[in-house]
Backbone:
DNA sequence: CTAAGAGTCAACTGTTTTAGTAGGGTAATA
DNA sequence: TATTACCCTACTAAAACAGTTGACTCTTAG
């Protein structure tokens, strides 16, 4: 089921970075690509896509770059992943936002797999639609802080 | 994220069918393929794989066919999906059963995406590892019964 | 008003996965 | 010993993934 593509991982990493500099002006594609180790032309395509979807805005010319359109606390992972990967549900017929009848189940209403996958979708959406970029950044900071505290502590043993 | 392949859907359909005839002797590949609308050579490969993993057993010659190894109440969807699709986690580094360090996150311990995907994995596993073939068959029967009751009811309005 | 900075865009390419097909081999039973 | 039925390898077409190429256009400073 490994379903998060590299593209989505790149997208999320780029957005975490933009979240951290929100309100401080635009960031260069080149800088983002460098710092997050993402092939620059690929990142360009990714950001362009996010721009078309309204998640980020861009500025051309000197002092240009990309920035989040909304505060990081208002962007959920669910939104982002849906933009890049499509529906969260493991099957199109189990999707809430983009339901598409499944070619596989002849009797759509009594497809057992579908009913269970609907539960999986709901559980996944409950997590991803309530987790924002800001929360992820905080989580990363907390974890780093704890790790560092432990490392420091180790030296004293 | 649509991550359930046709192969897995076929596998599950075949297993539901075998679950319904558990204890009544083996079922022919040809019959399974016909009834579940699965290309027979593909189904053969699927069943062979399940056999290697110990989920089903086969008998050759006249009166042969395939049957579940264990009672349908003891086989979970989690087991089956892991066999066919691999780990339930959206990222290899978020897997409990088959952890594999992620090439993408330089600092594995502070990867935000990983931490959230771990939550998604846990929620998914909680559902799939507690749902058995028998439960799915029951769910299908109940749903069919309700649908039929409604259909009948409609005629009386 | 023009040069440099910086994003925009279409089209192409190599690799991997998916969803099969083809065709013969092997074991069990009547 | 013929028939039934599973076993196995190898091949392939199409789609998805992970990029690359190269030309283009807009913005701003000087």
Residues:
């Amino acid at each position: 089921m490994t379903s998060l593509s590299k593209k989505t991982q790149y997208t999320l990493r780029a957005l975490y970075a933009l979240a951290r500099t929100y309100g401080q002006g635009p960031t260069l594609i080149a800088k983002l690509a460098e710092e997050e180790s993402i092939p620059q032309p690929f990142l360009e395509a990714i950001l362009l896509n996010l721009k078309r979807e309204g998640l980020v805005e861009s500025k051309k010319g000197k002092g240009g770059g990309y920035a989040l359109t909304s505060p990081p606390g208002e962007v959920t992972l669910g939104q982002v992943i849906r933009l890049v990967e499509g529906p969260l549900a493991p099957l199109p017929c189990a999707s809430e936002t983009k339901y598409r009848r499944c070619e596989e189940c002849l009797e759509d209403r009594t497809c057992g797999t579908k009913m269970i996958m609907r539960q999986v979708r709901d559980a996944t959406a409950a997590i991803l639609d309530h987790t924002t970029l800001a929360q992820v950044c905080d989580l990363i900071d907390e974890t780093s802080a704890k790790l560092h505290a432990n490392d420091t502590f180790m030296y004293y043993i």
Remarks:
- DSSP finds six helices and two strands in chain A.
